[in-house]
Amino acid sequence: xxxxxxxxxxxSGGVGLAAASMSxxxxxxxxxxxxxxxxSEYEPKSMLHVKETLVERARYPVIDVHTHLxxxxxxxxxxxxxxERNYPGTPQEVLQVMDRKNLRAMVNLTxxxxxxxxDAIARYDKTxxxxxxxxxxxxxxxxxxxxYPSFQAGAIEDAHRxxxxxxxxxxxxxxxxxxxxxxxxxxxxxxxxxxxxxxxCGQLNMPxxxxxxxxxxxxxxxxxxxxxxxxxxxxxxxxxxxKEFPSNAQILEARNRVKARHQKTQFLTLHVGNFAEDLENGxxxxxxxxxxxxxxxxxxxxxxxxxxxxxxxxxxxxxxxLFGTDAVPHGDELPQQVFNDKLYEIYFRFLETDDEYFDYAxxxxxxxxxxxxxxxxxxxxxxxxxxxxNAARLLGIAAKS
Length: 401
Known about the structure:
Shape: globular
Number of helices: 15
Order of helices and strands: HHEEEEEHEHEHEHHEHHEHHEHHEHH
Strand order of the largest sheet: 1-6-7-8-9-10-11-12
Structural class: alpha/beta
Number of strands: 12
Largest sheet: 8 strands, parallel
Strand content: 5-15%
Radius of gyration: 26 Å
Distance between the termini: 79 Å
């Protein structure tokens, strides 16, 4: 059939024959079914064939600077009100994982204060010297006392004498602590009543591990546009969206004013500076504040989906990035930070390999957002710094290779 005759066929009877054929086929076919699926039941299996590297043990000794081995026995509206501590695991079971994974030491950030702090230090640091280091926390239950600023500075000195290695600031300050402790107006991160506390830490060379904000998605509406919808929907109390709370930017600006006022105090800004979604922001702060360092706990899900930018970030700030996980023994309800072998293997895989498209948490469904991550394959010199050298320097302990 010539080209001209073929075109005539398609524009006349030929189209009708094709349409008739399609109509006949449609009549015989079963009606299509539109299946509804609850997103919580969706567990897609990747069809990609990519390299999978199991890193059972870190290439170099590790200091995990962000773990939680104890908690206050009593908290109200996000504020710790008790000296007594709860312990989610025993030192012996924690040590078993540490030895398998090449963890030289772990830092228990939530050691508390007063008698509870002394108990946590006795249970971990003194019983297993060199394997555990404990941080203290502010004594918020005495916040209404007229001499609180000087009292809290004195409590830092007491904690230092008891063996505490640093101070931990939870997001209690900025998002939970209020003028009447659990009610009233929110107390800002840069409230001058805490200035003597920051100064005391600087004078005693006690680093401040500070966490005052959360993923930026927690400050936006929990709607269909929120990439962490499932996470916030499962934990609605994690949302800080609305007039009751400051914005993420306002919290970070207040935190930065504290760093600027207390330049002799070292601030370990947790969770990649509380803004892992914007590494340019983190870079700007690190350039501005020489008394600032960061760690990576519970943020490899953010770093690993921007692997090229993340690798450049590690290369540029290799002396100021520390290893952390936010691990909690038996914290199974939070798979991105549950303390077990698998959690550490994922972190090691992210840092040591160039593997592609793998899970950032040991979970059936990605717990923070529906994405996967890529390894950044750091060179040995940077790995040693991130795994333990930077932490050893900050904590004032001997480094081991």
